[in-house]
Amino acid sequence: MAIFEDESRGESSRLKPLTWYLIGTGSWFASHGIQNVMFAWLVTIVLNESPVMVGVAQLALLFPATLLMLIGGSLADRLGGKRVAVVSQSLAIFPLGTLAIFLLFDQLSFGVMIAYAIAIGSLQAFVTPARDGLLNSVAQGNIQRTVVKVTLIQFLVQMGGFTLAGTADAIGGFLIIATQTTIVAGGAIALGQLPKQRDSDIRLATEPWFPALTRSIKNGFNTVWSNPSMRMVVVQNVAMGICFMGSYVVTIPLLIRERYDGSSDDLAFVNLVNSTGLVVTILAQLILREIRHKGNALLLAHGIGTLILSLASLGFDFPYFLTLMFCWGACGGVAMSMSRTIMQEEAPNDQRGSVMSFFSFSFMGAGPIGALLWGFIAEYIGPQIALFVACTLMFAIVLCITTYAKRRGIKFN
After folding, report:
1. Residue 196, exposed/middle/buried by CB under 10 A (0-12, 13-18, 19+)?
2. Tens digit of pLDDT for each residue in 121-158?
3. What is the phi/psi pair of residue 4, to 5°?
4. What confidence category does residue 5 fall into, taking pLDDT thresholds of 50, 70 and 90?
5. pLDDT tens, residue by residue, 52-93
6. Cα–Cα distance between 247 and 61 in angstroms, integer?
7. CA-CA distance, 365 to 367, in Å (whole number)?
8. 204 and 332 in contact (C-beta within 8 Å)?
């Protein structure tokens, strides 16, 4: 059942809901691409913080998702994904604009970066599940192909964000952040163009907020955990958030600073190459036939990805390091599209916001733990060894999940 009323039927001049969705989603990911480079550059290179402080900064950016993601998903089910996504993305203009002002007047400090991280991270906890919950309703045809298309757009625009942020050394941080603010504002306008949602598809506020949110979160958890396919995806997401995301956001900027004596353009180039690998495999999925055994593909992508990233930790010359980042991104393109497809296909219509919030929570919520953990570890044993240990741990977890699923006869496809 489509969640949106078809208000545009017969009006060919209006864009389709999926197009507006892609514009809104693309704006957030373009901003995210800019942020990935700029946040690491400002903290690691401009402020020259220690590995522990880099980990603390990444914790401040990621931890709000741990606290608020499930609430964000429940609000999306209760108030409607469109409303929550538009309001949250609109509010993101304020921390971005404030950061731009501090950069303009050369008043940047670690405290400013922490305040910005908490604010933008909190808003992401509401934007992400609301936006993900809308995807199924704007999908055209096969869900897996729609997920792949959306993922492709996300990473193409994110690569544009990396490229723009890579010019920070040349043109300064203010212009970059000001542009990022404009992009986010445009995306909020695009999401506002989505057709109105039917009241029958939103859990209207008929009871007190706190009991309703608590019950929604509990029901979402029960739905995810009772479904073997979704349960296995969530477990892998937690491991990936700690071992991959947590280590990547801390050790890679440190490696670029300490091993390769890099700058903002090097940070951007690494992220750009990594995302290019993602895009290549996503394009391959669009061209080739639908992947039938999604769970097996997910496990295989994680397993190969750990081996590739562990090689990247060995300190090869920069061109070889970039090649490994590309290959690791290629594995990530399979893993991300398969995990999201499984969750979208298995989620009940009236719980899609809650279910997708658990999907995002399991990955993004685990990221802060990993960031802080690997920040402390890198302080004592260095970023190269810390990254290698993270990869070894992830590989062991993938083997355990594979063995468990095989013995229990779990087929998460």
Report:
1. exposed
2. 999 889 988 887 787 777 666 666 777 778 788 888 98
3. -90, 140
4. very low
5. 898 899 888 888 877 787 788 778 777 778 889 999 999 999
6. 14
7. 5
8. no
pTM for this model (two decimals): 0.71
| Per-residue pLDDT at 304 exceeds 90 | yes
Q: Say how far apart CA 301 and CA 303 lie, in whole Å.
A: 5
Residue with tokens 């603390």: 56
Identify the CA nearest to 413 among candidates 227, 252, 243, 256.
227
